[in-house]
Amino acid sequence: MSLTVLVTGATGFIGRRLVPALIEAGHDVRAMTRRPESYDGPGTPVGGDVFDPGSLAEPLEGVDVAIYLVHSLDDNDFERKDAEAAKAFGAAAAAQGVGQIVYLGGLGKDGEDLSPHLRSRREVEKLLGEAGVPVTVLRAAIVVGSGGISWEMTRELVKNLPVMVVPRWAGTRTQPIAVDDVIRYLVGVAGNDDAKDRVFEIGGADQLSYKGMLQGAAEVMHGRKVPILQVPIGTPMLSEWWIKLVTGVDATTAGNLIESMGTEVVQTDFAIRDVVPGEPMTYAEAVRQAIAED
């Protein structure tokens, strides 16, 4: 069934891969961007800014499914900004009769002491549906793919450091997922009645510590392990400046991500595989694909 699908953040890490995949699936896709005149990707460019509620009615008119891929991790006030944007987007979608909002959130159990980053993702989940539009949430941990912030941090650390001394959060378990699997799941739930008003956990084939991720990336990139010493120190502030120094990733973004790295984020519910069948890639496969795209 062909749908009219709006993709916010169409020029971002996920969005620029998702738009062509939705088109290939037979949908009419609107690529929402703040600068539609400079958009040169597939789909129909439409102007809109989730942080400007007055700009949302026009791009959402006649839309069946809206895919929400927006966050403000590069801003110290991201919790407030993302909450206001989600509330405004949900209200505008309801006013235009949108049938479903799909949101890519973050893994982590609700009962745990969530970091500000993960707590904000949970709040956005709720606010998007507050006006009554059915919401489908896909919760993911680190997404591995060329251009993704978490992967770029991993790659640069492995590339630039022959020996690594890592903070204590490097022992926390996570479940990285290949960007192609994320795209497959997003396309699979769009317009799918079995997915509406549901939260799904998505993950790759492997559960690893962050230290294990670094080691696995080193083996794929260099064909060998690199010495990694984990030390029982490392405040978020020290970690974010260490990441910035070695990788060049913005310190605010790195800091907001690092605050989440003390929370174990692994998949415990596999219901997504009943709705969107298929086996996810291993971490090594995801790394090889990311390197091939770099």
UniProtKB/TrEMBL annotation:
<dbReference type="InterPro" id="IPR016040">
    <property type="entry name" value="NAD(P)-bd_dom"/>
</dbReference>
<dbReference type="InterPro" id="IPR036291">
    <property type="entry name" value="NAD(P)-bd_dom_sf"/>
</dbReference>
<feature type="domain" description="NAD(P)-binding">
    <location>
        <begin position="9"/>
        <end position="142"/>
    </location>
</feature>
<dbReference type="InterPro" id="IPR051207">
    <property type="entry name" value="ComplexI_NDUFA9_subunit"/>
</dbReference>
<protein>
    <submittedName>
        <fullName>Unannotated protein</fullName>
    </submittedName>
</protein>
<dbReference type="GO" id="GO:0044877">
    <property type="term" value="F:protein-containing complex binding"/>
</dbReference>
<dbReference type="Pfam" id="PF13460">
    <property type="entry name" value="NAD_binding_10"/>
</dbReference>
